[in-house]
Design brief:
InterPro entries (chain A): Thiolase, Thiolase-like, Thiolase_C_2
Radius of gyration of chain A: 19 Å
Radius of gyration of chain B: 15 Å
Helix content of chain A: 25-40%
CATH architecture of the largest domain in chain B: Beta Barrel
Protein name (chain B): DNA-binding protein
Largest interface: A-B, 26 and 27 residues
Organism (chain B): Streptomyces mangrovisoli
Number of helices of chain B: 1
CATH class of chain A: Alpha Beta
Distance between the termini of chain B: 39 Å
Structural class of chain B: mainly beta
Protein name (chain A): Thiolase
Strand order of the largest sheet of chain B: 6-5-4-7-8
Strand content of chain B: 35-45%
CATH class of the largest domain in chain B: Mainly Beta
Pfam families (chain B): OB_ChsH2_C, zf-ChsH2
Structural class of chain A: alpha/beta
Oligomer: heterodimer
CATH topology of the largest domain in chain B: OB fold (Dihydrolipoamide Acetyltransferase, E2P)
Number of domains of chain A: 1
CATH architecture of chain A: 3-Layer(aba) Sandwich
CATH superfamily of chain A: Thiolase/Chalcone synthase
């Protein structure tokens, strides 16, 4: 079987968020996964007993598929707790497609939950730095992204104002999403971003993602079964993964991420190119991410990301809709954001985006990022029309 | 087998910055390992760096209760990169592309490799 044989074989049939933002006192990450799962099953028109494949990653749990399967009361015949940081859930899409296509399971649940905000805003993470890095007291992970930003600015003349444009666009999108943490707060200006508290130069607090609570669930099944379910299937058209490093000092070139590889693989499997993509959902933990991924995935040339995101080009009404839910910067970021990329992509493909819905959306790209630009996982999802 | 980290620490204790060299592919290796991450060969041999390098990337950390400080990635002339700090200049004035030289200082009871601007010294 060639990898392109996975194209269109499975579809996302259910998506849901749990409560987001600051959840009620006492709610745990398990509760948020349970809530999201119940909602996603309802969305899909499926029963819990239909789930026989389970995919989960967590910063809290070394054995998430065991703990969470017990909580949910499911007995998966196929389980995968691949943890590549925030990109895990996009990687799980590809893994679930393989497992379903191979007949190892029929209906797969991907779940995530975190109460990072309620936990006091600490990044609950088993991450340990190399001793050869830790001695210099970088702040993980923001300093690592700041180093990448510094290099991009040096090599390509990217400015802090251009980085700020990413946060400004995200805030605009969030004003169209009632579930966004910053919904109703009004717009952000470039000057607001530049004058916010400096965290790790050149990144201010407004160049950094939110710290929220939140959970999500995504349900996939075979394309054949999907056609019998009530919602329009979001077909899995292609996926790719790539990992080049773990530690920032080991990243070969701070201005180019492994999304070059993961994106190429996903596009090849899908038989698509960047100009075929209608909406783009990128893991924007920091403003520099969006620039790097737009370049590495082929939406603009290397080094042109700063100019590309300026003048509202990725904001509502711009040329390319990017992070239509408001992103990790303005919608929700509980520590591992990747599952929310998928949820928003599916909503856009179904036409459920409300005030932020993009017309004629048939192909959505999601790009998950894990570690410090370390792991990249890309997937392309599409409507029946895109499937052809 | 001696732990790879021991070779680095022993060097620092004598004021040297040590790195590993692969005899097969001739690449410099840092951080210390038991095999070459480029070609897979082992064992690697220890070498001592000249301590001369170029700033590759830089950031300034702003934390409550402490003065702003620098964290940088430095490309050593022997062909390896490490995280470190550039001292002897305001943290925001550390420039990418500038030449720096090693200084082994004592911090929290242990030797630490930091860098200082070379200026015209080279």
């Amino acid at each position: 079987m060639s990898s392109t044989d996975l194209r269109g074989k499975v579809a996302v049939v259910g998506v849901a968020e749990s409560d987001l933002g600051q959840v009620a006192p006492g709610l745990t990450h398990f509760d948020l996964m349970g809530q999201a799962t119940a909602r996603a099953l309802k969305d899909a028109g499926l029963k819990k007993s239909d789930i026989d494949g389970f995919f989960c990653a967590s910063s809290y749990l070394p054995f998430p598929t065991l703990d969470v399967a017990e909580y949910l009361g499911i007995r998966p015949v196929y389980a995968d707790s691949t943890n590549v940081g925030g990109s895990s859930f996009v990687a799980h899409l590809l893994h679930a497609a393989m497992a379903i296509e191979a007949g190892l399971c029929t209906t797969a649940l991907i779940a995530y939950g975190s109460t990072q905000r309620s936990d006091g805003g600490r990044l609950v993470s088993p991450t340990t730095l190399l001793p050869w890095e830790e001695a210099y007291r970088p702040r993980y992970p923001v300093s690592m992204y700041a180093l990448a930003a510094s290099r991009h600015m040096h090599e390509y003349g990217t400015t802090r104002e251009q980085l700020a444009e990413v946060a400004v666009a995200a805030r605009h999108w969030a004003q169209l999403n009632p579930k966004a943490f910053t919904y109703g707060r009004g717009p952000l200006t470039v000057e607001d971003v530049l004058s916010s508290q400096m965290i790790s130069y050149p990144l201010t607090s407004k160049d950094c993602c939110l710290v929220t609570d939140g959970g999500g669930a995504v349900i996939l099944t075979s394309a054949e079964r999907a056609r019998d379910l009530p919602t329009a299937p979001a077909y899995f058209l292609g996926g790719g993964e790539a990992t080049w490093h773990r530690s920032m000092s080991q990243m070969p070139d701070l201005t180019t991420t492994a999304a070059v590889d993961s994106g190429r693989r996903a596009f090849a499997m899908a038989g698509l190119k960047p100009s075929d993509v209608d909406v783009v959902e990128l893991y924007d933990a920091f403003t520099i991410n969006t620039l790097l991924f737009l370049e590495d995935l082929g939406f603009c040339e290397k080094g042109e990301g700063g100019a590309f995101v300026s003048d509202g080009r990725i904001a509502p009404g711009g040329e390319l809709p990017v992070n239509t839910n408001g992103g990790g910067l303005s919608y929700c970021h509980p520590g591992m954001y990747g599952i929310f990329l998928i949820i928003e992509a599916v909503r856009q493909l179904r036409g459920e985006g409300g005030a932020r819905q993009q017309a004629n959306t048939n192909v959505a790209l999601v790009n998950g990022n894990g570690g410090v630009l370390s792991s990249q996982a890309t997937a392309l999802l599409g409507t029946a029309e895109a499937l052809g | 087998m001696t732990a790879p980290s021991t070779g680095y620490e022993e060097g620092l204790a004598t004021g040297e910055l040590r790195f590993q060299h692969c005899g097969d592919c001739q690449n410099a290796v840092f951080y210390p390992r038991v095999l070459c991450p480029h070609c897979g060969s082992e064992p690697l041999e220890w070498r001592t760096s000249s301590g001369l390098g170029t700033v590759y990337a830089t950031t300034v950390l702003h934390k409550r209760g402490t003065d702003p400080y620098n964290v940088a990635l430095v490309d050593l002339d022997e062909g390896f990169r490490m995280m470190s700090r550039v001292e002897g200049v305001a943290p925001e004035d550390v420039e990418i592309g500038s030449r720096v030289g090693l200084a082994v200082i004592e911090e929290e009871g242990a030797p630490l490799a930091v860098f200082r601007p070379l200026g015209d010294q080279e």
